[in-house]
UniProtKB/TrEMBL annotation:
SUPFAM superfamilies hit by this protein: GroES-like, NAD(P)-binding Rossmann-fold domains
UniProt protein name: Enoyl reductase (ER) domain-containing protein
SMART domains noted in UniProt: PKS_ER
Organism annotation: Bimuria novae-zelandiae CBS 107.79
Cofactor(s) listed in the protein's UniProt record: Zn(2+)
Length: 350
């Protein structure tokens, strides 16, 4: 396959409050260096955290995107030869150190020395992206690229998040998912339901209610219309849920979500408000109520493979809409306003 000298990408101009994503067709294509592969992208999901790149909430690269699927077309020195021609997924975790105590236990997603796609290396909103050969995910035959894409961040984040309910929260227990109709949340509803939890989905609007219920939610609470705290109590014998996963990244969601968990319950932080925001709970409450608070950032390689297997079996069915690459800037704007139900995926230019 011949690789052109320039390519089309989505590029951030003036990252910050007036940041803007633009489509450029004059960008260069990177050379894969040691252990890296060059991937010709087919599809890329667009995630709410890509908004952080555009609006300058931290240090990121000019090209966002961390849910890419495509074919390996070139190997850098030392990269595994068997990857050539394979369909692979590119995730938020570009690489980890492989040497720290977390990496040795398989918790590569929490490595303190990790690099990230779109943050430390250019993201997947391009035609060709460079990825680390040891950290790409093989996409099984039978899972379409546009279906695999949102599983690479949205799905994996919730596979990781749901796993953090254990060992305290048992099958049959109540689990609240705050932000259940978005890109991450709706897959989380499906994963938690498969794991045997009774899912109470919280989000706003009829479209998100319909999606959450299709994914298996036992109940839906519309925060725009209902008293969320009371509604959760009414559904859970007055005590609150055994587990709460806060997927929404808004400060308001966190303020309220901490009130939804019962004593001795588990609260999992997944959604990412701006880094200046502090967790809204006093140590007195955490101590007296015996709460367990866990953080979850994406998931492990094993969780990724399990999720793709479930997708292949038709048990995980993310709601996707596929758009032309040129729609990327519009999708970022919609995500920033929390207007997207399910996941929007773009088709890389051929
Ligand atoms: Zn993401
Ligand atoms: Zn490490």
């Amino acid at each position: 396959m011949s690789i052109p000298s320039t390519q089309t990408v989505a590029w951030i101009e003036n990252p910050g409050q007036s940041g803007k994503l633009i489509i450029r067709s004059d960008a260069s294509i990177q050379e894969p260096s040691e252990n890296e592969v060059l991937v010709k992208l087919q599809h890329s999901g667009i995630c709410h955290s890509d908004c952080h790149n555009v609006y300058g909430q931290g240090k990121y690269t000019e090209i966002p995107g961390h849910e890419g699927v495509g074919e390996v077309v070139k190997l850098g020195p030392g990269a595994k030869e068997e990857l050539m021609g394979k369909r692979v997924g590119i995730k938020w975790l570009y690489s980890s150190c492989k040497e720290c105590s977390g990496c040795k236990k398989g918790n590569i997603n929490n490595c303190a020395k990790q690099s990230n796609t779109g943050r430390t290396t250019l993201g997947t909103l391009q035609q060709y992206v460079v990825a680390h050969g040891d950290f790409v995910t093989l996409i099984p035959d039978g899972v379409k690229s546009e279906v695999a894409a949102p599983l690479l961040c949205a799905g994996l984040s919730l596979a990781g998040g749901v796993s953090k309910l254990q060992p305290e929260v048992q099958p049959g227990d109540y689990v609240v998912i705050v932000g259940a109709g978005g890109g991450l949340g709706h897959i989380g509803v499906q994963i938690a339901t498969i794991k045997g939890y009774k899912v109470i989905a919280i989000d706003g609007g009829a479209e998100k209610e319909k999606l959450a219920k299709e994914m298996g939610a036992a109940a839906f609470i519309d925060f725009t219309k209902q008293d969320v705290v009371q509604a959760v109590k009414d559904l859970t014998d007055g005590e609150g849920a055994h587990g709460v996963i806060c997927v929404a990244g808004s400060e308001r969601a966190y303020e309220q979500a901490t009130e939804l968990v019962r004593n001795n319950g588990v609260f999992v932080c997944v959604g990412l408000p701006p880094s200046t925001y502090m967790f809204p709970m006093s140590p007195i409450h955490i101590a007296n109520r015996g709460l367990v608070i866990r953080g979850s950032s994406t998931g492990t390689a094993e969780q990724m493979d399990e999720l793709l297997q479930l997708a292949k079996e038709g048990k995980i069915t993310p709601k996707i809409e596929v758009f032309d690459f040129e729609e990327s800037p519009k999708i970022i704007q919609e995500l920033n306003k929390y207007e997207v139900t399910g996941r929007k995926v773009v088709r890389a230019p051929a």
